[in-house]
Amino acid sequence: xxxxxxxxxxxxxxxxxxxxxxxxxxxxxxxxxxxxxxxxxxxxxxxxxxxxxxxxxxxxxxxxxxxxxxxxxxxxxxxxxxxxxxxxxxxxxxxxxxxxxxxxxxxxxxxxxxxxxxxxxxxxxxxxxxxxxxxxxxxxxxxxxxxxxxxxxxxxxxxxxxxxxxxxxxxxxxxxxxxxxxxxxxxxxxxxxxxxxxxxxxxxxxxxxxxxxxxxxxxxxxxxxxxxxxxxxxxxxxxxxxxxxxxxxxxxxxxxxxxxxxxxxxxxxxxxxxxxxxxxxxxxxxxxxxxxxxxxxxxxxxxxxxxxxxxxxxxxxxxxxxxx
Length: 324
Description:
Rhomboid-like fold, HSP40/DNAj peptide-binding domain, four-stranded mixed sheet, three-stranded antiparallel sheet
């Protein structure tokens, strides 16, 4: 299963979340640039429990270097796919959490989740000499916050069946709940770092993400956050949408709704939608004309159910203009 996006749109551009993704990419490029010295670089800036607990190892590092590694480890990655996987997950879940907390609180929340995940790994693998790197723990904290904030949201997931793309919407509480259970089972059934994966860091990040959310939700947003939200207000909705269909009086016709922003209603838009009925799921390009109003209906000819004469009914898309 490959998560594509969630179905809860954020109201503003996630400036901090996008910046964190950019920083992770830059750190990865710096890491690659080390060449043969990359292992030393990872050992120095990664989280190595033995540097804090084993005196003969700790003697080679200053207090400042050890303190710095508690934060730098979460910006390093073990390879291109490790980076892509983490950044894609952060892209999907981080924008909504930033939307709720605001930019200032979100950056503090993210870093604290990363720190807490690292400490969880350190305490449970106190004498390990293996460097732990990656944003997974901090992102697990973001996922924990999302689990609490948006349990009713759905995760649009791609399930490739041979060469056929199959898109399904999985409830967020189920998607994230299963993820957490799998982390726990893997941690309980291994040393906690089997296969090069710090399972307890994931678990710690998720749990502390839930706890920190409760704390940060009580801290009032700053005036800077309000001004930034206004400046970064999104003008466009998701280009790809899943249309939930229903039947009308004519069995061959299908009915659904398409959500757009006020800006898109004014200037027009192009959307890629998947329209499921039964076991069939097809992709269609939909052109939203300029000046369309809330409640107007777009008629997609021949997109409905088959008729007895071999033709197809139509798809009636009701436009919903999102008021932010």
